[in-house]
Amino acid sequence: MPPTELAPGTGVRWREGWLAGARTVPSPHHGERPPGIAPDLVVIHSISLPPGRYGGPEIEAFFTNRLDVSQHPYFERLRGLEVSAHFVVRRDGELLQFVSCDRRAWHAGRSSFRGRENCNDFSVGIELEGLEGEAFAPVQYRVLVALLRDLRAAYPITHVAGHEHVAPGRKADPGAAFDWGGLQRSLGWPVACFAPLDPAAT
């Protein structure tokens, strides 16, 4: 199937849920979305492997089932886990895509949003390379803003939340240092689109 421009005049081009311009790193960890379900939620995460170390190949290895758990003591707790996200934004702004947005990535785990359980069914997962509680790089926000606009041009995205908002008490990412207000202002979307800014969203 040839690339299809879904938002005339924007230059946003998708092929079967894959975004042109992202480096494709296919993960085996995905499945079908429930029938008739298109993603309307974006869940933002943070990840670094091992925690606080940036720029290495470990995130890609983890999401593609190739992580050597003997390389670092922290990795032992990841043994046997099957995890993926749709996108990863590296510290230098590189954008990677692991799963088609038409498919269900395994990123949110046990989760709920506005009374709906199992957020993986109806969400796109975006991982920012970083550590919860620490600031993210300005270029990561620029890439994230562009990605969210691309997603909203192709899918019925209505809300953006953090992992901490869909799995409170279990997850704390992207953390207190994430600039939700700045993201909202950069996008120009209504405050009600953002779970931490809209009290009714959780």
Q: What does this 3D model show about the protein?
A:
With 202 residues, the chain is α/β, with parallel strands linked by helices. The protein has one domain: Lysozyme-like, CATH 3.40.80. Helix content is 17%, strand content 22%. It is built from four helices and 13 strands. It has helices spanning 58-63, 138-154, 163-166, 180-187; strands at 4-7, 12-15, 18-19, 23-24, 30-31, 41-47, 87-89, 95-97, 104-105, 112-113, 116-117, 123-129, 159-162. Strand 10 and strand 11 form a beta hairpin. The longest helix is centred in the C-terminal third of the chain and has 17 residues, at 138-154. The radius of gyration is 16 Å and the shape is globular. The N and C termini lie far apart (38 Å).
Fill in the keyword field for this structure:
13 strands, three-stranded antiparallel β-sheet, single chain, Lysozyme-like, alpha/beta, 17% helix, disordered N terminus, globular, 4 helices, 202 residues, six-stranded mixed β-sheet
Number of domains: 1
The overall pLDDT, averaged over residues, is 92
Q: Supply the CATH architecture.
A: 3-Layer(aba) Sandwich
Indicate the CATH class: Alpha Beta
CATH topology-level fold name: Lysozyme-like
Portion in helices: 10-25%
> Biggest β-sheet: count, sense, barrel?
6 strands, mixed
Order of strands across the widest beta sheet?
Answer: 4-8-7-12-6-13
Terminal residue distance: 38 Å
pLDDT < 50 stretches: 1-10
Strand runs, count: 13
Overall spatial form: globular
Alpha carbon gyration radius = 16 Å
Strand percentage, roughly?
A: 15-25%
- Total helical elements: 4
